DNA sequence: TTCTTATTAGTAATGATTATTATATCAAAT
DNA sequence: ATTTGATATAATAATCATTACTAATAAGAA
């Protein structure tokens, strides 16, 4: 295993992911930090996001978007994404081990995790559509 | 709405996705058809996969891989992907409307669908790992 | 058959991500 | 404190998947 240093840039990348209410993309983290760290490179952001995921400090999440998004909340939870505006929100549901057991029975795979993602229309877009 | 013609290439792209046991990528469909249709263009495969998804004849599925995969089975079902070799398999579970209701209570989003994806280790890779 | 328009092949362009490389920085051992 | 060996960085090039563009072709209605 590679010994990781506790570098400044990795710290601020981590902070940006954790502190941010939305689930930011690599590009977003870069744009956010660039003004304060003008020498920051996009490659550094990508590499550190990868290291942080590997360390289990953040996770990469599925999205309807093209770009990967990252989540600093390691408590197990799901996400809803709005099919109209793309907004993404957390959903906390208790982890259902029964699902894993059922999937194992069907497939023979040793299930290590499952992810539930929802698609829907956010409250704002519901209002907008209703008034059309 | 655009009027769609019934083109030869769209038909064979559809057939390839439906007939194939694994869930093929665009690249895979292209390689599969290229020998029989030497003039086939990768762009044509991508465009037709997109049209077929839009028409509800196939669906795009989530994957650990970089490339999108497609599924010709429109019966609602989930997938497991092996974290070791990447193999992908169908899992049929009854759709749980209770999940959508719970997600709606938590988020206020009008839920239109949910997807459950499993990660695990396939029987083959389990055997391989056991014998190491 | 003719006309309109979708479809195609071929290729260029884009966007996200990864790889490369030379330099800088850290941490431990001397 | 200096050296040493490794990781981290910035800058940039390269890659991979996907989309856009364009001129030629073909479906199918008139």
Distance between the termini of chain A: 57 Å
Question: Gyration radius of chain A, to the nearest Å?
Answer: 18 Å
- Please identify the oligomeric state: homodimer
Strand order of the largest sheet of chain A: 4-3-5
**Helix-strand string of chain A:** HHHEEEEHEH
Q: Number of helical runs of chain A?
A: 5
* Strand content range of chain A: 15-25%
User: What is the largest interface, and how many residues per chain?
Assistant: A-B, 33 and 33 residues
Indicate the CATH topology of the largest domain in chain A.
Arc Repressor Mutant, subunit A
How many separate structural domains of chain A? 2
- Mean pLDDT reading of chain A: 89
- Low-confidence segments of chain A: none
Measured as a percent range, the helix fraction of chain A is 25-40%
The appropriate CATH architecture of the largest domain in chain A is Orthogonal Bundle
Shape of chain A: flat
The level 1 CATH classification of the largest domain in chain A is Mainly Alpha
Overall SS class of chain A: alpha+beta
Largest sheet of chain A: 3 strands, mixed
- CATH-assigned homologous superfamily of the largest domain in chain A: Winged helix-like DNA-binding domain superfamily/Winged helix DNA-binding domain
**Total DSSP E strands of chain A:** 5
Describe this structure in words.
Two copies of one chain form a homodimer. Chain A is α+β, with helices and mostly antiparallel strands and 132 residues long. Chain A has two domains: 72 residues, Winged helix-like DNA-binding domain superfamily/Winged helix DNA-binding domain (Arc Repressor Mutant, subunit A, Orthogonal Bundle), CATH 1.10.10.10; 58 residues, Ferric-uptake regulator, C-terminal dimerisarion domain (Dna Ligase, domain 1, 2-Layer Sandwich), CATH 3.30.1490.190. Helices cover 39% and strands 20% of the residues of chain A. The first copy, chain A, is built from five helices and five strands, in the order αααββββαβα. In chain A, strands 4-3-5 form a three-stranded mixed beta sheet. In chain A, strand 1 and strand 2 form a beta hairpin. In chain A, helix 1 packs across helix 3. The radius of gyration of chain A is 18 Å and the shape is flat. The termini of chain A are far apart. The model of chain A has no long low-confidence stretch (mean pLDDT 89). Chains A and B meet through strand 3, helix 4 and strand 5 of A and strand 3, helix 4 and strand 5 of B. Strand 5 of chain A pairs antiparallel with strand 5 of chain B, so a sheet runs across the interface. Chain B binds a DNA duplex (30 and 30 nucleotides) through helix 1 and helix 3.
């Amino acid at each position: 295993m590679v010994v990781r240093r506790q570098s400044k840039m990795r710290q601020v990348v981590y902070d940006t992911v954790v502190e941010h209410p939305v689930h930011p993309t690599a590009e977003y983290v870069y744009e956010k930090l660039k003004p304060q760290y003008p020498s920051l490179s996009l490659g550094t952001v990508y590499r550190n996001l990868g290291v942080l995921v590997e360390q289990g400090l953040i996770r990469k999440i599925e999205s309807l978007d093209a770009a990967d998004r990252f989540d600093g909340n390691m408590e197990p939870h799901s996400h809803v994404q709005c099919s109209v505006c793309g907004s993404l929100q957390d959903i906390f549901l208790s982890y259902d081990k029964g699902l894993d057991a059922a999937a194992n029975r069907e497939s023979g795979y040793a299930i290590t995790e499952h992810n539930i993602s929802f698609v829907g229309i956010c409250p704002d877009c519901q209002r907008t559509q209703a008034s059309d």
